[in-house]
């Protein structure tokens, strides 16, 4: 690939020679992914430390410059340690869309026909467990426990991602300027 081609749009397929059935045979369910931090509580601690660092840096350090520099260095080390902890708590989830009949299958497993759309229920946890590709082996009980521990954050990340995969919402070709730039600047074009 010549340099710069990573940023160009793909060619339009030949309409005259287009094989619809071949195209259909290669289709797949939507997948969506998200990263969830098991320690989102650290974000607030990091923010408070960053505020403290700004206070130290903006204060008049002329009188106690060595003490202020020592405190700033200590606060900076605390920020980086907490960032490392938060980063280490990250887990990537990937969900696939439901196939025809899977929702009904899960409802049947539960012996349930109704669908209470106002609250997140065991049915929702079971559907997520059914959809979850990564990490492998999560049960509906795991999703219920994650919801209990992470609260609204769980709803805005895991539940929304699974729901987007199930509904096919927001499907487009993700763009990564970082990967495209690496390819464009690579000597192995």
Description:
It is built from 8 helices and 3 strands. By secondary structure, it is mainly alpha-helical. Among the domains are: 82 residues, no CATH class; 48 residues. The chain has a 3-stranded antiparallel β-sheet. The model has no long low-confidence stretch (mean pLDDT 84).
Strand order of the largest sheet: 1-2-3
- Oligomer kind: single chain
- Measured by DSSP, the beta-strand proportion falls in 5-15%
Q: Return residue spans where pLDDT drops below 50 for at least 5 consecutive residues.
A: none
Work out the number of β strands: 3
The number of distinct helices, counting runs of at least 4 residues, comes to: 8
Q: How do the helices and strands follow one another from N- to C-terminus? A: HEHHEHHEHHH
Gyration radius, in Å: 24 Å
């Amino acid at each position: 690939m010549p340099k710069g081609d990573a940023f160009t749009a793909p060619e339009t397929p030949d309409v005259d020679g287009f094989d619809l059935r071949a195209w259909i045979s290669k289709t797949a369910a939507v997948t969506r992914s998200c990263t969830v931090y098991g320690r989102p509580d650290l974000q607030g601690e990091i923010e408070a430390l960053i505020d403290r660092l700004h206070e130290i840096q903006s204060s008049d350090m002329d009188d106690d410059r060595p003490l202020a520099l020592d405190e700033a260095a200590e606060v900076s080390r605390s920020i980086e340690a907490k960032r490392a902890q938060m980063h280490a708590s990250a887990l990537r989830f990937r969900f696939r869309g439901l196939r025809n009949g899977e929702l009904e299958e899960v409802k049947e497993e539960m012996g349930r026909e109704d669908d209470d759309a106002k609250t997140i229920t065991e049915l929702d946890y079971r559907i997520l467990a059914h959809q979850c590709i990564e990490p492998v082996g999560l049960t509906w009980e795991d999703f219920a426990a994650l919801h209990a521990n992470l609260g609204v954050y769980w709803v805005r990340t895991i539940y929304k991602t699974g729901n987007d995969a199930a509904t096919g919402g927001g499907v487009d070709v993700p763009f990564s300027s970082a990967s495209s730039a690496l390819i464009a600047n690579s000597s192995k074009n």
